[in-house]
Amino acid sequence: MADITSQIPASARTGATAIGSGPRGPKPRRRLSPGNIMLYGTLFVVSVYYLLPLWVMVMTSLKGMPEIRMGNIFAPPVEVTFQPWVKAWSEACTGLNCDGLSRGFWNSVKILIPSVFFSIIIASINGYALVNWRFKGSDVFFTILIFGSFIPYQIMLYPIVILLREMGIYGTLWGLVLVHTIFGMPILTLLFRNYFSSLPEELFKAARVDGAGFWGIYFRIMLPMSLPIFVVAIILQVTGIWNDFLFGVVYTKPELYPMTVQLNNIVNSVQGVKEYNVNMAATLLTGLVPLIVYFASGKLFVRGIAAGAVKG
Amino acid sequence: MTAATSISVRDLTLNFGAVSVLKTLNLDVAEGEFIVLLGPSGCGKSTLLNCLAGLLDPSDGQIWIKGQNVTWAEPSERGIGMVFQSYALYPQMTVRGNLSFGLKNAKMPQPEIEKRVARAAEILQIGPLLDRKPAALSGGQRQRVAIGRALVRDVDVFLFDEPLSNLDAKLRSELRVEIKRLHSRLKNTMVYVTHDQIEALTLADRIAVMRGGIIQQLAAPQEIYNRPTNLFVAGFIGSPSMNFLNGATVDGGRAFDFGGLRVDLSGYDGGAVGAREKAILGLRPEHLTITDTAEPGRTIPAIVEIDEPMGADSLVWLKSGDATISVRVPVERRPVHGAPVHLRVDIPKASIFDARTEQRI
Predict the structure, then answer these.
(1) Which of A27, B179, B273, B342 has the most beta carbons within 10 angstroms of its beta carbon?
(2) In B, which residues are within 8 Å of A211 by CB distance?
(3) Side-chain half-sphere of B103: how many Cα atoms within 13 Å?
(4) Do A211 and B76 touch (CB under 8 A)?
């Protein structure tokens, strides 16, 4: 024993002083090694490549039309103007309406909130029931649900028009909400099912012995443990539904078009002069919501994806 | 069924698809009894416990608890509390929240909840931990809270599903004593699943040794240890494990013959041995002693191969004929390697098995 203890530094043996003495911190490196120059050089070039379009868009949107006609698209504006942003938001014309993107923005919000809410609530209950309350045929049910995600949307486009018409909600926002909720179901159910099956089964058993029922366990045991996966689901749904174009243009009518459809109509209008600054501002405005969602919850998103990947 | 019967399992069968996990199993547990279900993995012991708890639906048969048929009752309506191997504490709740969750579900008035939580905390000495989250507890503390969650329910039957398997050895023996103390204080019926025979032998009033969904032997620990009903129980119980000598009983069952060596069987504690062509003599390492003098019929010659000192005892491995035999001796009386010695056999404590049926004679 004596020869073993003598090899351990005194600070480690006494315990109390072990933290704070001895070598600590990252392995020392030279800052300007050839490897680092290569690494950061490459990263720099790649990030410039990806950021350049954004730069052009922001700069163009802040210029007036005479300055844009001079050609130099990379140059910052000589005279900064926010007029294109104002016009894109509240004055640009699509068809007969001349109230800009604001109408589309509010339509998109009205579609987004109920669609995200209902699709996630239903899918999480689906996943929970499929993991913890297995019923006869639950595997078949799950297989069918997953199979649904492999069928191309285009095949179902027209049948859904007929279905919505028969239900009397064709051309309404609620029709589009229903479509989004249903189409989000397979992938979200899979996501929640995998997450819930990674939670220890004994927790569920303990809650049953404690007399909690289906909803009691869902709301009081499962939900509080599932924040990361809910964040993942919210991000997937917000970006997916916000960026949707096809369903929006097919299942609604012009005054209810979502923002993406309106953006297309502003940018692609063929009458008059092409106002590049207004188009750029409109595009940036439309992309703002997914961007904010990513920045606000990126860390949770990665954690949720990782949690599902390792254990699911 | 008598009034003192707490749990009664009648012809319980459970099939998972084509696999039969429990086969028409019967078990009666007396009130206040501590029953340990013991067996290797996959023997059906946890499945049986889950059936008792109502977490698995049986394919056939009935379960009675306290004179009520609870075969199809919800877990919370059975009057049971359960402790799990992984503790299964609700991570988002404090210890207090964990203890009171079941009582709140039962719509119990708040003062009564507080009274019961305080009592459980006092019994298990977890009072200072009540406002902590499970993540801030050590393994032993977590398992105490898990026991407390069963305790506050004030139930007649406690079910333990390998509660100590996730703890380290020292903590395990501490909590083992504590569970035993708890049982002598509360006098509840307890059903305890484990694969650890030390836990089984130390805790149980009776042990049910299981294999393949069937209870092999249900008896008091000493009975199981001294008179195992078959070869499986004999080999499973006891560490270091029992020596098995393959041979035959001769002279109308008066002697055991293996490879030309003979042991006199007079004084055997069992049924009529009779002459059998294939029999197995089971000897526990502590029922053999090493001597220098030969006594015909009472001793067998052997040669010392190796020994394993284990603190107070030493396990000596010897070669006798073709058989390898282990003997437990006090460490100061370890024999010399390679020395020829004689082994005295304690026949009244031995077991003889029929090699074909594997049953004890």
Answers:
(1) B179
(2) 74-76, 102, 105-106
(3) 24
(4) yes
**Is there a single domain that holds both residue A84 and residue A117?**
no
Q: Minimal CA–CA distance to B213: which of B23, B12, B13, B59?
A: B23
| Statement to judge: residues B76 and B214 lie in one domain | yes
Indicate if A80 and A211 belong to the same structural domain.
no
| Residue A209 to residue B55, Cβ atoms within 8 A | yes
Contact A209 B80 (CB under 8 A): yes
Instruction: Tell whether B108 and B88 lie within a shared domain.
Output: yes
> A31 pLDDT exceeds 90?
no
Our count of domains for chain A comes to: 2
Residue numbers in B near A216 (CB within 8 A): 105
- Tell me how far apart the alpha carbons of residues B352 and A208 are, in angstroms, rounded to a whole number: 47
Cross-chain residue pair B102–A220, CB shorter than 8 Å:
no
pLDDT one-digit tens code per residue, B197-230: 999 999 999 999 999 999 999 999 999 999 999 9
* Torsion from C-alpha of B152, B157, B162, B168, nearest 10 degrees: 40
pTM for the complete prediction? 0.80
**Residue range of the domain that includes A68:** 34-90
Same domain, B157 and B231: yes
Whole-angstrom Cα distance, residue A142 to residue A148?
10
Give the CATH number for residue B302: 2.40.50.140
Interface predicted TM-score (ipTM)? 0.85
pLDDT tens-place string over residues B83-115? 999 889 999 899 999 999 999 999 999 999 999
